[in-house]
Design a protein that fits this description.
By secondary structure, this protein is an alpha/beta fold. It has three domains: 105 residues, Rossmann fold (3-Layer(aba) Sandwich), CATH 3.40.50.10800; 110 residues, NadA-like (Rossmann fold, 3-Layer(aba) Sandwich), CATH 3.40.50.10800; 71 residues, NadA-like (Rossmann fold, 3-Layer(aba) Sandwich). It contains 15 helices and 13 strands. Helix 1 packs parallel to helix 14, helix 3 packs parallel to helix 4 and helix 6 packs across helix 15. The longest helix has 16 residues. The chain starts with a helix and ends with a helix. The model has no long low-confidence stretch (mean pLDDT 96). Bound molecules: 1,3-dihydroxyacetonephosphate (13P) and iron/sulfur cluster (SF4). The site of iron/sulfur cluster has 13 residues, from helix 13.
Length: 325
């Protein structure tokens, strides 16, 4: 199958992109590998007219938003469960809830994690807000705070609360905390089911076994876990930091299994007794990659990403505001 894929890649004007959480077999055939921010930038600037995107829907949508003339196809239309936790109606309900609590709409600056649908990014842009990723969220929130408005951070509660703590501003979760209206950052109550797996017990377990262990976690983990870790960073930041340590240093990593499994040759542990695989990321197989390439060859173009043009233009404004920073 790999040979067939390589042959089709040579024949067609196509680039294969894969997020770090993809299966090893998919990573092996990818031309571009990265985290969500790196992929958005690299794929949008890629010269090939066809892009096969191996990841989840919001990532492929981000490329299509930035590069509308590119044909973006997914081997599988896999959806991030966190991105599906907020839709247009629940976004509008959240703003209405804040208004009922005395916060004026014009005093709200929405910051939306890139793990969201184009529909939500468009709504955020219309309110003057912008996108962030886990790699740049701190920079984006610090810049947004200069407007003197309240930050509405969505959809990941954990990322919002972790950043608020790091920056030193007050924060609360909408629908959970009654006194949310007095806080500087209000988080939507969404989460990543994969990164919720890691617990303080897991950290204690590894620290008891290896007293000099380094614990690195993704900021989608619960704030209690982040507080107990030695290092918190996005996917690319974790990769960079882990590789700086000598191979003898034991490291436990709290993020997706496929990435951790190929990080280093030894002394690298998944920070859980469970296997933290992202079911959506794992949907894509080598067979699916071959299938989508064949569809380019016979011009049937399966699983092509399309976005309503007005929505795309607004979503692009939210992405461009991030990229400008
Ligand atoms: P990154 O921005 O670190 O690639 O994260 C994307 C993601 O889905 C993490 O769960
Ligand atoms: Fe979405 Fe979590 Fe999977 Fe990332 S790991 S794609 S946030 S479900």
């Amino acid at each position: 199958m790999r040979e067939k894929i390589e042959r089709l890649k040579r024949k067609l004007d196509v680039t294969i992109a894969a997020h770090y959480y993809q299966r090893d077999e998919v990573i092996a055939v990818a031309d571009v590998i990265g985290d969500s921010l790196e992929l958005a930038k690299k794929c949008a600037g890629d010269p090939n007219p066809n892009l096969v995107f191996c990841g989840v829907g919001f990532m492929a949508q981000s490329v299509k938003t930035l590069a509308p003339n590119k044909r973006v196809l997914m081997p599988r239309i896999a959806c991030c469960s966190m991105a599906r936790m907020i839709d247009g109606a629940s976004y509008d309900r959240s703003i209405a809830l804040m208004e009922r609590a005395g916060i004026e709409r014009q005093n709200v600056m929405p910051i939306v994690y890139i793990n969201s649908q184009a529909e939500i990014k468009a709504r955020v842009a219309k309110m003057g807000g912008m996108v962030c990723t886990s790699a740049n969220a701190e920079t984006i929130i610090r810049a947004a705070l200069k407007n003197g408005k309240k930050i509405f951070f969505l959809p990941d509660r954990c990322l919002g609360l972790n950043l608020a703590k790091r920056i030193g501003i007050s924060a609360a979760t909408l629908g959970r905390d009654e006194d949310f209206a007095s806080k500087e950052l209000i988080a939507f109550d969404g989460f990543c089911s994969v990164h919720q797996i890691f617990t303080i017990d897991d950290i204690d377990f590894y620290r008891a076994k290896y007293p000099d262990i380094i614990v690195a976690v993704h900021p989608e983990c619960d704030p209690s876990v982040v507080d107990h870790a030695d290092f918190v960073g996005s996917t690319s930041q974790i990769i960079k930091r882990v590789k700086e340590f000598p191979i003898e240093t034991p490291i436990a990593v709290g993020t997706e299994f496929n990435l951790v499994n190929r990080l280093r040759e030894k002394n690298t542990f998944v920070l859980s007794r469970q296997k933290p695989e992202c079911p959506s990321m794992n949907e894509t197989t080598l067979r699916d990659v071959l299938g989508v390439l064949q569809s380019i060859e016979n011009e049937t173009f399966i699983n092509e990403i399309t976005i309503d043009e007005e929505e795309r233009e607004w979503a692009k404004i939210a992405l461009d505001r991030m990229l400008a920073l």
